[in-house]
Design goal:
By secondary structure, the chain is α/β, with parallel strands linked by helices. Helix content is 40%, strand content 18%.
Length: 327
């Protein structure tokens, strides 16, 4: 079997490519001229350079593959149109390329996010596949618009959408700053009220993606992949501290300082021409009380299960950061 993985030069996508290769798939990856190839070089993958600017630009990428796994996306943009271009439009061009050049595809899997739905209302009401979508950021709205494009093609070839919560693990550039602070004895906590989130190690996320992609019962369906429990930030802070083996100070940061930091980062990003991942909208993400989701549907239909608990996963991640001189 042949599989196309977009986003294989990034955090989650690189593990997706490796997992499918380990299961005997021939892996093809899209790359851009600016891509860092550290996770795909010398792996035996077929690398296809494209800019995702049209369906025609993706012809060579999609032709003759059995599966398309669309993991790539834009997580930082100057405005909503930038997010739409990087998430909705590229997804549409990829779908159109499959329709034009590979209509007998076995499965098109789109990797979405809980941000497409929004946070839960309370600890007793986690979001699931039946929850009405109310994204709270431009990024989340753009992921929802991409989902709509995918669903428009469900009668042309098989599609599946998986929504991920917060994902962490080796190679995660977004979490390394947190580990650096913990390594110095500080754990920041957002706000003065307890917050809860679903969180998933990248190994579990990748296995869930594999199950969703290769199971015909998943055709036309949306699944949340998530942890079995909803973890408090305080509990995760304790796990982080234990993972580095140090006593830490829990530093509570008021919401207004989170928003101020996001505003300043955004201004500096616009001045430098390089948009930061953390901005005012990310600050809005961080200040929500319940980023929790229910994975029962994936458990029942796909046989998905969380295997890596936070303490074990954080220890593995910290060791990887240290071994690779990220900390």
């Amino acid at each position: 079997m042949d599989v196309l993985v977009t986003g294989a030069t990034g955090f989650i996508g690189s593990f997706v490519a490796e997992y499918f290769a380990s299961r005997g798939f021939n892996v093809r990856c899209t790359i851009r001229k600016s891509s860092n190839l550290q996770w795909v070089r010398d792996k035996g993958y077929e690398l296809i350079e494209t800019d995702f600017s049209s369906a025609d630009s993706l012809r060579k990428a999609v032709v003759d593959v059995d599966y398309v796994l669309h993991i790539a996306g834009t997580i930082a943009a100057p405005d909503y149109n930038g997010y739409l271009k990087g998430n909705r439009d590229t997804t549409f061009y990829l779908l159109k390329a499959v329709e034009m050049f590979n209509p007998h595809l076995k499965k098109f899997l789109y990797c979405s996010s809980q941000t497409a739905v929004g946070p839960a209302k309370s600890l007793n009401e986690p979001v699931d596949e039946t929850t009405e979508c109310h994204p709270v950021t431009s990024y989340g709205q753009s992921k929802l618009e991409a989902e709509k494009e995918v669903l428009n093609f469900k009668d042309i070839f098989p599609i599946t959408i998986v929504r991920l919560p917060a994902v962490y693990g080796p190679r995660d550039a977004a979490l390394v700053d947190m580990f650096r602070l913990v390594d110095k004895g500080i754990v920041p906590l957002i706000g003065f009220n307890e917050k809860y989130l679903s969180i998933l190690h990248c190994y579990d996320a990748v296995e869930g993606i594999f199950l969703a992609a290769t199971n015909e019962k998943a055709n036309g369906e949306i699944f949340f992949l998530s942890s079995n429990e909803f973890y408090s930030w305080s509990y995760l802070a304790d796990c982080l501290a234990a993972s580095v083996g140090k006593k830490v100070i829990k530093l509570k940061i008021p919401h207004f300082l989170v928003y101020t930091s996001g505003f300043v980062a955004e201004i500096l990003g616009k001045m430098s021409g390089k948009m930061p991942v953390f901005n005012r909208e990310k600050a809005r993400d961080f200040t929500q009380s319940y980023w929790i989701c229910d994975a029962k549907k994936a458990q029942q239909i796909l046989g998905f299960q969380q295997k890596m608990l936070p303490l074990e996963g954080f220890k593995m991640t910290y060791k990887w950061y240290k071994d690779n001189n990220w900390i």
